[in-house]
TrEMBL record:
It comes from Marixanthomonas spongiae. This is Thiamine-monophosphate kinase. It comes from the Bacteria. The lineage of its organism: Bacteria, Pseudomonadati, Bacteroidota, Flavobacteriia, Flavobacteriales. Mg(2+) 2 binds at D59, D88. Its EC number is 2.7.4.16. The keyword Metal-binding applies.
Length: 350
């Protein structure tokens, strides 16, 4: 699982830039009426739906900084690069409809490697029902860079910003957190083992969930529809890309409120708890600073509590307070400690 398929090698120069673009994008099908013109002209043309506003977001992934190809298969990388962008569109409570994909690639990559990358992009485009409408292809001197821009639309009144949370609002999280970071720890460890003994066959069965959360994350596509069905309009929302505490702090700062987060309410998968024990890590620290979970974090008015109560996708993890009260974690021992943003990069350096 630690090698990308490299059975045959066709060099990029054999196809040339235009041949390469054609080759990689020939399978993309247009699914949305709003895509008036996709790949093939100087620019894509997108129709705006009536009464809707356009939502635009970009994320760039750089080899050696955001991903390591020694354990990240290119197909997964393509998939993940799409998902991390869609997650940002969903975090605005919008529907994602188009993406553009730009790559900078060194000649160490054969065409077959880019085919794998694009197979992942195509799978994500199909699962999340989005059109690939353009991009750019250029060379790089060393690694691989992939930058995706996602477009979405939403009714003006449905768009949810980071800035709308009010004191007493409930803080709600989808899914669970901490798994993607631990998946990375397992993969990093196996990479070291593999360096020493290339014949070792790792038994990763007990880590399937956390590794999948790292290598093949999913974005919360269905939450906008779920909230709509429940007739809940969040007062603020953000996606959990950098770690729960830093996202909570973003909402607090943008909304000018404080918050109490309850340690015993933070949803953790059993594999997260078991792997934390094995690695001697504190599960709350991992949940707060882990990152890359791509869950949605939002606030709702207390009046909406009956509508979300008991929903298996949603957990109330705390509530907002007056700004002057500050941002705190209420521990299991019922002590109050200030919430700090560390992010997973900072945690790595410990
Ligand atoms: P231009 O020179 O006008 O920028 P290009 O030759 O770069 O045009 O691109 C031709 C078409 O292919 C455009 O529609 C562009 O958006 C699309 N395209 C280029 N590179 C990619 C890529 N890596 N993925 C998807 N579409 C791409
Ligand atoms: Mg171009």
């Amino acid at each position: 699982m630690f090698e990308n398929k490299d059975t045959s090698r066709t060099s990029i120069s054999q196809l040339g830039e235009f041949g390469l673009i054609d080759h990689l994008t020939k399978n993309f099908k247009i699914k949305h009426e709003t895509t008036v013109k996709g790949i093939g002209d100087d620019a894509a043309v997108i129709a705006s739906e009536k009464d809707q506003q356009l939502v635009v977001t970009t994320d760039m992934l750089v080899e050696g900084v955001h991903f390591d190809l020694s354990y990240m298969p290119l197909k997964h990388l393509g998939y993940k690069a799409v998902v991390v962008n869609l997650s940002d569109v969903y975090a605005m409570n919008a529907k994602a409809s188009q993406i553009t994909v730009s790559i900078a690639v060194s000649n160490r990559f054969p065409v077959e490697a880019l085919e794998e990358l694009y197979a992942g992009i195509e799978t994500a485009a199909s699962i999340y029902n989005i059109d690939v409408v353009g991009g750019d292809t250029t060379s790089s001197t060393t690694g691989l860079v992939i930058s995706i821009t996602a477009l979405g639309q939403a009714k003006k009144d449905n768009i949810v910003y980071r800035s709308g949370a009010k004191a007493n609002d409930l803080l709600v999280l989808t899914g669970d957190v901490g798994a993607a970071y631990l998946g990375l720890q397992v993969l990093e460890r196996e990479k070291q083992v593999f360096k020493v003994n290339p014949k070792s066959q790792p038994d990763l069965d007990k880590y399937t969930y956390i590794i999948e959360r790292q290598l093949k994350p999913e974005a919360r596509q269905g939450i906008a529809a779920l909230l709509n069905e429940l007739e809940v309009q969040p007062t603020s929302m953000i996606d959990v890309s950098d770690g729960l505490s830093s996202e909570i702090i973003h909402i607090c700062k943008n909304s000018k409120v404080g918050c109490n987060l309850y340690e015993d309410k933070i949803p953790l998968d059993p594999q997260v708890i078991a792997t934390c024990e094995e690695f001697e890590l504190d599960s709350t620290t991992v949940a707060l600073s882990g990152g890359e979970d791509y869950e949605l974090l939002f606030t709702v008015s207390t009046e909406d509590f009956p509508k979300i109560k008991g929903n298996p996708h949603l957990t109330v993890i705390g509530h907002m307070t007056q700004e002057s009260e500050g941002m705190h974690l209420i521990t299991r021992a019922n002590t109050k400690i200030p919430l700090v943003a560390r992010g997973w990069n900072a945690m790595k350096e410990d």
